[in-house]
From TrEMBL:
The lineage of its organism: Bacteria, Bacillati, Actinomycetota, Actinomycetes, Kitasatosporales. Residues 254-381 form the Acyl-CoA dehydrogenase/oxidase C-terminal domain. Signal peptide: none annotated. Residues 6-118 form the Acyl-CoA dehydrogenase/oxidase N-terminal domain. It comes from the Bacteria. One of its GO terms (molecular function) is acyl-CoA dehydrogenase activity. SUPFAM superfamilies: Acyl-CoA dehydrogenase C-terminal domain-like, Acyl-CoA dehydrogenase NM domain-like. This is Acyl-CoA dehydrogenase. Its cofactor is FAD. The keyword Oxidoreductase applies. InterPro entries: Acyl-CoA_Oxase/DH_mid-dom_sf, AcylCo_DH-like_C, AcylCo_DH/oxidase_C, AcylCoA_DH/ox_N, AcylCoA_DH/ox_N_sf, AcylCoA_DH/oxidase_NM_dom_sf. Keywords: FAD, Flavoprotein, Oxidoreductase. Belongs to the acyl-CoA dehydrogenase family.
Length: 395
């Protein structure tokens, strides 16, 4: 493994950081999360047209850049630093790989170029708080029972030569604004039930969408209600969606880990700057040994999380599932972000608790991501099960 970045990878990071510095400052961030969509469409257009971000990991024949998960994770690290609210994670990491892996030739040719250009945003909808389970990050569910969990999940039936969906999905990332929805639904009845993925247009009849109030406003979520909603099967009836979702977990975990590392690194930088300026007893707060020790501990956590995130991206790009790199990296990164944000609030003093200062947004990102994709102890426990750690220790 060569851990050095290529000139192209360094250029992606540099250019994206400069763009976000200009277009996604604290004021722009707050304005964006208050919009109905929860993000700035103009920024998303700039990310698509100037950097090709939505199609970064898509093949060139479909209008993509032709890079790998590694480059997508590096881009997520920069968006995480700025807490940039955008459909990048939902569209490029959660949905586009499924369309590429399972879609028919006609579906790929129709949808992927529009995603790569930024003109089509997409979201993955699974019932209830089951996203981490569906992606194989916090447990194994080979029968896909998560799809029929909360409130009956989403059911699919054949009707009029097509498919109709009925049910509800909560906590769908960008589900309230995405123009295309990929919905996981049960079909076949109880005895022969299967999980299939369906394509639903954002303006489909029978679909009701509403933005939910989320702890992390920079990660907007929607609730979907489907009432006999017309849907198109993704792929064919013989397509097994569960393995594809499990494989997708590695990609998503690597991107999320990189995002969390970027956020943790930025909040640590801001805290170091602040304690170097704030004075107490006639000297900077940052000169006190206790403060230095606390920040040094956070720095070590962030650097360890960065190494784990980069390795997870490297492993996901090679599609190797022999090791639980993604889940472990995500656990390490979420813990580092939580530590960095908590110390940031404490060392900023009273201002750290105020709405006017953005350090609390990083703490909410840490807590929100743990609720959606964790918690940390479950990520680690599942990784240990996959690696047979306790079985080997008991021999």
């Amino acid at each position: 493994m060569d851990a050095r970045f290529t000139p192209e990878q360094d250029e992606i990071r540099r250019t994206l950081r400069e763009l976000l510095h200009k277009r996604c400052g604290p004021e722009e961030l707050r304005a964006a999360v208050d919009t109905p969509a929860g993000h700035d469409p103009a920024l998303w257009t700039a990310l698509a047209e100037q950097l090709g971000l939505p199609g970064l990991a898509l093949p060139e024949p479909y209008g993509g850049v032709g890079c790998s998960v590694t480059e997508l994770a590096l881009a997520c690290e920069e968006t995480g630093r700025a807490l940039a609210p955008s459909p990048l994670l939902a569209t490029a990491a959660l949905t586009a790989p499924l369309l590429l892996a399972l879609g028919t030739d006609a579906q790929r040719a129709d949808l992927l170029p529009r995603i790569a250009s930024g003109g089509l945003t997409a979201a993955l909808a699974v019932p209830g708080p089951a996203l981490a389970t569906a992606l194989g990050l916090t447990g194994l569910d080979p029968r896909g029972e998560w799809a029929a969990a909360a409130a009956g999940g989403v059911q699919a039936r054949r009707a009029d030569g097509g498919w109709r969906l009925y049910g509800q999905a909560d906590q769908v990332l960008d589900g309230h604004s995405a123009r295309l929805l990929v919905v996981a639904a049960h079909t076949g009845g109880f005895a022969r039930s299967r999980v299939l993925l369906f394509l639903v247009r954002g303006d489909a009849a029978g679909l009701t969408r509403v933005r939910q109030t989320a702890l992390d406003a920079t990660r907007p979520q929607g609730r979907l209600q489907l009432r006999e909603t017309l849907a198109e099967l993704l792929g064919s009836a013989d397509t097994d969606a569960l393995p594809a979702l499990a494989r997708l977990g590695d990609t998503v975990a690597a991107c999320l880990a990189a995002e969390a590392v970027g956020a943790a690194d930025r909040v640590l930088e801001r805290t170091v700057e602040y304690v170097g300026q704030r004075e107490q007893f006639g000297r900077p707060v940052g000169s006190f040994q206790a403060v230095k020790h606390r920040l040094a501990d956070v720095y070590v956590e962030v650097q360890a999380a960065r190494s784990a995130a980069y390795h997870a991206a490297w492993a996901a790009a090679r599609q190797g599932r022999g090791e639980p790199a993604g889940g472990l990296a995500l656990a390490q990164a979420l813990q580092a972000l939580r530590s960095a944000a908590a110390e940031g609030i404490q060392l900023h003093g009273g201002i750290g608790f105020t709405w006017e200062h953005e350090v609390h947004l990083y703490f909410k990102r840490a807590a929100g991501d743990e609720l959606l994709f964790g918690p940390v102890h479950r990520l680690r426990a599942h990784a240990a099960d996959v690696a047979h750690v306790f079985e080997e220790a008991g021999r």
